[in-house]
Prior knowledge:
- By secondary structure, the protein is an alpha/beta fold.
- The chain has a single domain (26-163, 198-243), classed as Undecaprenyl pyrophosphate synthetase, CATH 3.40.1180.
- 44% of the residues lie in helices and 14% in strands.
- The chain is built from eight helices and six strands.
- Strands 3-4-2-1-5-6 form a six-stranded parallel sheet, with helices on both faces.
- Helix 6 (130-142) links the parallel strand 3 (117-122) and strand 4.
- The longest helix has 25 residues, at 90-114.
- It is globular, with a radius of gyration of 18 Å.
Amino acid sequence: xxxxxxxxxxxxxxxxxxxxxxxxxxxxxxxxxxxxxxxxxxxxxxxxxxxxxxxxxxxxxxxxxxxxxxxxxxxxxxxxxxxxxxxxxxxxxxxxxxxxxxxxxxxxxxxxxxxxxxxxxxxxxxxxxxxxxxxxxxxxxxxxxxxxxxxxxxxxxxxxxxxxxxxxxxxxxxxxxxxxxxxxxxxxxxxxxxxxxxxxxxxxxxxxxxxxxxxxxxxxxxxxxxxxxxxxxxxxxxxxxxxxxxxxxxxxxxx
Length: 255
């Protein structure tokens, strides 16, 4: 298990604006973000598309993950690349692949080690560029024994695809002799075995008000927030405002 130095501990504490952690203060153990609007942020500034992705993935996202982990949020899930994003322009896809490698190896891995966090990939692995796949495998293996936090990176992820893959695995288990009464779909999802597989809060940036197939099983009772800001403009005070609104909501879970 990774341990933090005194300097690291003091730095992390300084980034958490409240001594009371988010699980205790807001009831948030798992927060998920759909980081939308990088391209529109760039267009507003007459910048190339790549500049928006660079700002969102290499500047905004690491800060938010760091601050959420310091605030006590156990699980943070980020949707980095969807199964539909392959339809984008080839130069943009290539840039996103290169960014993913850099983010995983030079941003997320460092954050995970400092917060004793485990990195888990959600999504398909059979279509990802070899460099990205190697980076995913490296960070997953390097953090497999970390226990205090969990960072889910959804890459080449789609909700329908996840359910299809889970169903295939369930049928395989059934054919291999597992009694039907013992089969639960959540045991075959990408989040299987996680302490908090279901997000308490899902935030989508850029004003788009749809889930686009994000974690359809796990978000059945999540509280959804659609905010107008493009993702590169996200900051921790914005997340705190969302957390305050979450605390004011009454979660009945169908009761």
